[in-house]
Every structure is written in structure tokens, then in C-alpha cells.
Amino acid sequence: MTLARQVARVTRTAFLVVAVAALINMAMLAYLNLHLDAEEVRATDAGRELRLAHLAMLDQETGLRAFLITGDAESLAPYLEGRNVVVQHLAAARDLLTDNDELLGLIDVQDERRRAWTSQWANRAVQVGGSISSSGVSPYKREFVTEGRLLFDDYRAAHDDVEVAANVLREDTEAERGRVVKGALALQVVLLCAGLLIVGRQLRSLRGAILEPVQGLLGTISELRDGNLSARSRPQGPAELRAVGDGLDELAEALGTERAGTERRAQQLREARREAEDANAAKSAFLATMSHEIRTPMNAVVGMTGLLLDSPLTDEQREFAETVRQSGDALLTIINDVLDFSKIESGQLELEHQAFVLRDCVESSLDLVAAQATAKGLDLVAQIDLEVPPVVEGDVTRLRQVLVNLLGNAVKFTEQGEILVSVTAESAGPDGRPVLSFAVRDSGIGIPADRMDRLFRSFSQVDSSTTRTHGGTGLGLAISLRLAEAMGGRLDVSSEVGTGSTFTLVAPFTPGHELEDRVRIAPAQLPGKRALIVDDNPTNRRILRAQLEAWGMSVDDDGLPLEALDRVRGADAAYDVAILDMHMPDMDGAELAVTLRALPGWEQIPLVLLTSLGDRITLAEVPDLVHLTKPVKAAALRAVVARALGSTEPEHRATERPERVGRLRILLAEDNAVNQKVAVLMLERLGQRPVVVSDGAEAVEALRNAAYDLVLMDVQMPVMDGLEATRRIRADLPADRQPRIVAMTANALVEDREASLAAGMDDHLAKPVRAEELADVLARVTTRASAAPPAAPALTPAPGGPAVDPAALDALTRHLGANGPGFRDTLVSAWRRESRHLLEQLDSGAASGDREAVGGVAHSLRSSSASLGALALAALCASVDDAVRADEPLDLMVTASLIHLEVARADEAFTDLG
Ligand code: ADP
Q1: What is the DSSP string of 310-366?
Q2: Looking at domain 806-913, which CATH architecture does it have?
Q3: Is there an atom of ligand 1 within 6 Å of 473 CB?
Q4: What predicted TM-score, i.e. pTM, was given to this entire model?
Q5: Which residues does 368 contact at the CB level (< 8 Å), separation at least 6?
Q6: Whose CA is nearest to atom 17 of ligand 1?
Q7: Which of 72, 504, 634, 900 could form a disulfide with 492 if both were Cys (CB 3.0 to 4.6 A apart)?
């Protein structure tokens, strides 16, 4: 049965019960009104008529009695009236009680007795009444009266019966009314109870018919919700709920099918992803192989051209060799870009977190583009705000990469004017770290607004014709942007065609505390001194002024040499130093220097000439003229000005041939004959004589037979590769025979570097190997006493003499030409890092009374310091080292503080040397 029919049935039943109850009520009311009420009225009316008839009889009797007593005919009036009245009332009573035979019978009896009284006594009394009344008491009279009374008593008895019967009739009617009402009520109660019972049963069955199927449906829904799509409802109950169940089942069926489809698609996606990852891995492997394959011959090309350029060549040959070198460099840049980009794209980019001096990073970036900028006559200037933390933590290599890329573009797309790098501190980021902004502003061709969107797209150039003019892969900015984002920052650009562009890297950096930027410390000679700056470039003037003022100097500056001369002649101002730019209109810096020297009072004033790379100036013409190469590094400016104002540090001594530096025992493991040759030649230039082997197995064997300080290990070699050889060496050799092992590989990916380090290597050199990087590696080697080579600069100078002999550094870097200063900085930085580390060991050794540890530190410091010309320190360390070996008494704390002092002196001297 349907739900609708069941509900209708219950409603109908309830309605029926109510209707029957109403009908009963109506029937009862009708019966009471139409039948019982009429009956009752008739009984009451008949009773009244009977009473009136009886009263008339009483009146008759009273009238007759009066007549009998008085004999007065007038007394007969009630009797005479009563006779008719009685008859009328009795007739009326009879009419009302026509269907009540019993009462009619009784009335007949009463009437009969009335007539008997009337005929037998009343009529006689009327006739004899007059005579009786006048007679006295007589027996007749008494008898007559008694006779009348007896007849009347009969009548009265009959009347009483009638009245009783009339009362009974009335009471019967009332009793019936009560019975009818009670009966109707009882019927209704029964009906209601029966109705309630039926409706209750029907409701129960209705609830049973709905609840159970609904519970079933809810159960199915909850199973479906829990993910069991095979759950089905068991259709039952009314048709409507069965339809709902069927719908639910269909829905579950559809969902099941959908889920199966989704799972199939997910499986397909997983497979596709695995395939993509495999493809990506294959791509990475391919890139690594390509990188290796390209870098191996490039190593020969770049290395050999470097060596070729160091040999005597005709101008034409030099030009050819330089072209080869530049093309090699360009090709390497492209390979590096592509590798970098693919590394970033595949999410393999990992940033380092190390403290570095921000100024060094910015200035070394400028160095890398200085040559191109000078060739185009562009001014290259860096400005670092004083609020910028001098030392920060981060990935210095990646920061430099972004800056070099922005600077390279700026130089590439600028024909005249200047390029300014300004570093400013913005408000701190959400994590509280200072946010630094590195803006590279050029005065170049600019970028049209509608081409801006192409800028950061990979392999895209704003104007494809620039590729033909300037070259480039269109990857530089895409890589820079991703690096900026990896640092948690961004790369902004603003540009105006014809006016120039500004690219700004904005990123948060944690301030570092392990290092210090010595440039921020004013040398004792500078505060209070007066300086004159003459430079036509206002930005340069502003920056130089800010720098000198930061060291406590007072500064005058002029944009034109003639104005400067006027100023100098006009006021007999006593300047302590003058800084002159070489390239100025009307009169160049060298001429200005000559003119100034000729002025009275200017014979002794130190002059600093700012020159560009490649400027040829005959310094001999102007006495006491120091030159400083642009872009001016703050550290160099500080050293030069300090020396000019009284520092007693010796001048750089130029020597013709590179001198031999401390010789190390080096083992070169390299299978490629050309690369062997390149490395051997480079090492020989650095004063070394390596032993060469061709594979890992030979390297292991060679190390078993002899002690080496350094192993330069190619990674991919036949028989035994470099990683395996390293693992064997690390496992086989005792600790005191362990060499420093540096991977020399054409695999430039991060994983390759990690694999080398994991195998036990100390460092990693990517091919093509450059002379300066190789020299840096040598500088980091710590030799052992037994192997102490005949160090070229003997440990002669006694403590108290000059802290550093600049000849040693010159000897190491001179042959590198323009790259020399950069390389020298690299060497000194490496020395500083190592010394800091060794001093920590020294302090803990001295504090714990560990003579061996102190001796070990002295031994390590001795050779690295000697190589760089820190001879006083080397001599001190040698004596400590010897004393420890000879078991001589030694106050470790005093020794440690002496070494600290000497390291500080050498450090200062390196800074002053610039
Ligand atoms: P590329 O290696 O080709 O220079 P980049 O990604 O570094 O690739 O630069 C993309 C393009 O953006 C350049 O080809 C050039 O059109 C434009 N561009 C970049 N820097 C500058 C700039 N400083 N001035 C003008 N145009 C620039």
C-alpha cells in the first residue's frame, strides 16, 4: 500500500469516528426534541386540564354545600358554572391523552363517578336544597349529606388515581429523557474508544511502514558516506520510500563507476608522473653527461688559451688567443646558464647559509664586469648605505650571480653614462629580518613598456635583434628571478626607453656576526683630515665623499679640474689628500696631478688617481701619485688613503717572474691526456711539480707508497673512478698520512659535488679549472712537518719586522694580470677563514693544556702564512712547532696570545695592502 493511501486511511477512520459521534448526537437531540419533549408537554397539559376539571368539581361541591346550608339560589352559581367547565377540561384532557389508554380508562372512571355524583346527588340537592337548608338537623338531612359526601369521595378517589397516573406518565417521560441522554453518551464513548483504537492501530502500522524503511535508507546513506559504494538499500515499505531506495542505489552505482574511473585516472596519472620523473631524471643525467662532455674539451680550450696568453705572442696571435678565450668563456656562461636553469626548474636548487661581508660580494660583482664597462667607457659605481648590515648570512654565490647578471645586462645595454649599484635597507620583513634592496641602475637603451612582460620569460629577449648584437640566451633574468624568489625575495624592474633601466633585487637577509667589514672601521690616520675630490661624475663624487666622511674626514669636491684649480689657488686651503679621476673633460687626472704638484704647498700632498683597467699612465712623472683602479673598492680606498696619510706599510714590490711559493706534494689523478697537460702546466705556473697518475687504482697505489699533501682527483676515470679511489684512501691510510683530496671534475651539478663530499673529498673544482681557483685550492692545503717543502720565502724576518712581505702575494698573483687583485683577495679570504678556525682550536688547546693541539695549530698556520708572505707569523709558528716537537717547556696561554697578536697584525697588513 502506498504511503499516501495509508495516511488517507488513518484520516478517513478519524473522520468516520467524528462523523458517527456527530450523527448520534444529532439523533439524540432530534429524539429528545421531537418526541420526548412533545410527550412531556402533552402529559403536563393533560395534568393541568385534569387539575382544572378537579378544581371545577371542588367549586361545584362547595357551591352545592353552600346552597344546602344557606338555601340561597345564588350560592348555586359555582355549581352551575362548574358543570360545564368540568366537562370541557375533561374533554381537553382526553384529547391530549388519546394514545394513553390506561389514563383514558382512569379518566372515564373519574367522569363516570362525577356523573354519578351529579345525577345521584347534585341534581337532587339542587331540587331539595331549599327545603333542606331551612330544616333543622334531621336524619334525612344527615343521610343526604353523607350520601353526597360518599359519592364525592368516590369521585375524588377516581381523580386521585388519574392524577397519580398523570404524574407517573410525566416521570416516565423524564426518566426516558435521562436514559436517552445516557445511552447516547455511552454510545459516543464506545465509538470514540473504538475510533481511537482503530486510528492508533492504523498510525502504528503507518509508523512501522515508514520508520523501518527510512532507517534502512539512512543506514545505506551512512555506509555510502563512509566510502562503501557497494552498499545497497533493501527496497521495502511504501512505494514512495521504495522509489527513494531505488534512486539511492542508482546514485551509489553511478558513484562507484565514477570512483573506479577516478582511481583508474589517478593510477594513469601516477604512471604518467613516474614516467615524467624518469624522463626528468634522464634529462638530468643527460645534462650531466652533456655538461661533462662539453666541459672536458672546454677545460683544454680555456686552460690552454690561458697558458698561451701567458706566453710571448705577437699582437695578432694574442688577439686570436684572446678571442678563443672570450668565446670559451661565453660558451661556458651559456652552459652554466642552461645547467642552472634546468637545476632550478627541476627543483634542485639549494641555497647556502653562510655569513659573508656584503661589500665584498658587491665589489667582487663589479670586478667581474669592470673590464667590459671600462671598454665602453662606462662608470661603474657601488653605494652601500650605512644602515645596511655589513655582514649578512645567505648564499653569497647566488647573490653575486644575480648581481653579475644584472650588471652584465646593464653594461651590455648601455652605451654611455654610468651604472650604479646601490644597496639600501628597507623596513624589516614579517619575520623581523632586514629586507635589503640591491638596485642596479643604468643609463642605457631602456625597455619599452609593452615588452616588460617578456623580460623574465625564459629564452626570451625583449628585442630579438639584440641577440644578434649582444648575444645572450635570454635565461639570465629568468634565472635571477627564480634565485630572488628562492631567497624569499623578488626582482623588480622600472625602465624608460632612452633613459635607462633599474633592476632591483629585494630580499630578506639575516645579519651575520662571525665576520666584520673592516671598511666600516676608520683607520687612525683619517679622522679630521681634509680631502679634495675632483671627478666629473656626480654619483662618483657623492659616493667618494660619503665614504671619506664616514671615516671622519672633511671633504671638498669639484666636477671640473679647472674649478678645482681655482678653488685650490683661491683659498690657501691645506688639503691632506686629493683624489682625482683620470677621465675628465678638458684636462685629465694625470695632467691635473702634474698641475697641482707644481703649485706651492702641493709638493708633498698625496695624490690618488682613479684609473680604469687598461689605462697606461706614466706614474714616474708625478712623484707620490698613487693610483687606484676603478671601480673603487672601499677597502682599497681606505688602505690607499690611510697609507698616503702616514701609514708606514711598504710599497708593492713588482717582480718580473712569479716566484716559487711553498711547494706541496701534489698527486694529479686524471685520465685525459690533454687535461693532464693543462693541469700540470697550471700547477707548474703556481710553482708546483705534481706527480701524475691515470686512474683511481694508480692513485691509491701512489698514496700507499708516498705521502702527499694534495690529491687532485678526476671523478670519471677508467679502472677505478675518483669516488671509489677516495673511499679506499680514506679507509686505508692512517690519519697522519691523509691528504687533502679535491675533486676536479667536469660534472658541475650539485649532486656531483655532494657525491664527492660524501665519498670523503674535501673540496670540488669544476672544469674548466681556472688558475685562480686552483691557486685558492693550494692555499687551503695544510702541509705536514715531515713533508714541509722548502718554502720559497724563508722564515727569516724576526718578529717585530713587517707583518707581511707583499712580494709573496705579488708572486702568487702577478701572472694573472687583470685577475690578479681578485685572486689575491680570494687567497687572503681563504687564509682569514682558515686562521679564524685554527685560532679557535688554539684557544681550546691552550685552555685545556693540550700541547699537541697547540703544536698542530702552529704547524698548520706556519705553512699557510708563509705562502702568503706573513713571515713574522710563520716564524713564530715555526718556533712554537719546533718547541712542541722538541718537548721544550712552553707557556701555552702566552704562546696562544702571541699567535693571536701576530695573526691580527698580518690581517691588518693584508687589509692595508688592499
Ligand atoms: P640575455 O642573456 O639574453 O641578456 P636576460 O634574461 O638577461 O637574457 O635578458 C633578457 C632581455 O631583457 C635582454 O635580451 C634585453 O632585451 C632585456 N634587458 C635585460 N636587461 C636590460 C637592461 N639593463 N637594459 C635594457 N634591456 C635589458
Answers
A1: TS---HHHHHHHHHHHHHHHHHHHHHHHHHHHHHHHTT------EEEEHHHHHHHHH
A2: Up-down Bundle (1.20)
A3: yes
A4: 0.50
A5: 404, 407
A6: 462
A7: 504
